[in-house]
Amino acid sequence: MELEYIAQDNRITTARYELGLIEKRIVYFMIKKIRNDYVIKDVGQRNLFDNLTIKMTTSNLLKTGGKSKDVKKALKTLRTRSFEYDNGLDEEDPNYHWFETGFINYGDWDKNTGQVEIEISKKILPFFVELTKRYTEYSLTVAMSLRSKWSQRMYEMCSQWKSAGGFNIDIEEIRKRFKIEDKYSRFALLKKYVLDVAHKELKELYDKGQCDLYFEYSEVKNGRSVKSLRIKVISSTEQEMNLTNDDMIYYIRTELKQLFQTDEKPKNQSFIGSLIRELSIHTDKIKHCYNKVMFTKNNIPPDEQAKYLRFIINEEYLKS
């Protein structure tokens, strides 16, 4: 199957929002149109920091299911949806940055002609274009064919870490990203209605040759409670994205926060922060550190990983 790939800023891959199935298809089409018509072609040197009007058709949005009335409902809901983003720093940090906005300014649907028109706010527009190197590349063909909104989000997340072979993520982070803090309070429910739904659909499409990846996951427990997930990404394509420095630092920070249990041992947060500051100054060390963390995760016994990495970090990155 020939796949058409599109890219989006990783800030939108990791942002906190919840979209319905047709709403997400509208967003996918927005990304495709912006990238193809206004980034690659650079039509008229258009200023991407102005509001932008985009047109599509009902048939674009319902190729793999849905009713025409769902388009109106999706546009109406999408206009009121909240897109929330922060840069991951503590709110007390002087460099903390946060904003909240809607996905679109208006939606206009003509049932007779099937034409759909939307306007994208200049505030959110930069998140939909490849303005920085922090991007996720994934197949529009696959994304538009998925029938579950959880499959859509998990597919994007897996695409982000495809070249790394997987990633770790806290259960609470999943709840925040998917905007389900008040839903599926027990992990068993989250597993049944979110994770397993996405896993089943992606695996079935992968087995049919209609998807370029799927994921398996294992639970990381703290006592009897599931604290985080270790996601393994299985990919059938050799087309891998090149991880940027920002991607690798994000991966290093995420892995170390879990490994050094920063929630239970907050002093370790300072240790990790010292490393990240060192890597931000000496960017030539980022790839080396990333490889060290990857090697540790894949080759060192789990009960020895924290001790091993603490020694490596102190000796190779923090030793003055």
Give a quick rundown of the structure.
This protein is of the alpha+beta class and 320 residues long. It has twelve helices and ten strands.
Structure report:
This protein is an alpha+beta fold and 320 residues long. It is 45% helix and 20% strand. The chain is built from 12 helices and 10 strands. The strands form 4 sheets. The protein has a 3-stranded antiparallel sheet. Strands 8-10-9 form a 3-stranded antiparallel sheet. Strands 1-7 form a two-stranded antiparallel sheet. Helix 2 packs across helix 4.
Assign an overall shape. Answer: globular
- The number of helical elements comes to 12
Average pLDDT over all residues: 81
Strand line-up of the largest beta sheet: 2-6-5
State the low-pLDDT regions, or none. Answer: none
The sequence of SSEs as H and E is: EHHEHHEEEEEHHEHHEEHHHH
How far apart the termini lie comes to: 53 Å
What would you report as the Rg, rounded to the nearest angstrom?
21 Å
Helicity, as a percent range: 40-55%
- How many strands appear in the DSSP assignment? 10
Query: What would you call the structural class?
Result: alpha+beta
Strand composition percent:
15-25%
| Biggest β-sheet description | 3 strands, antiparallel
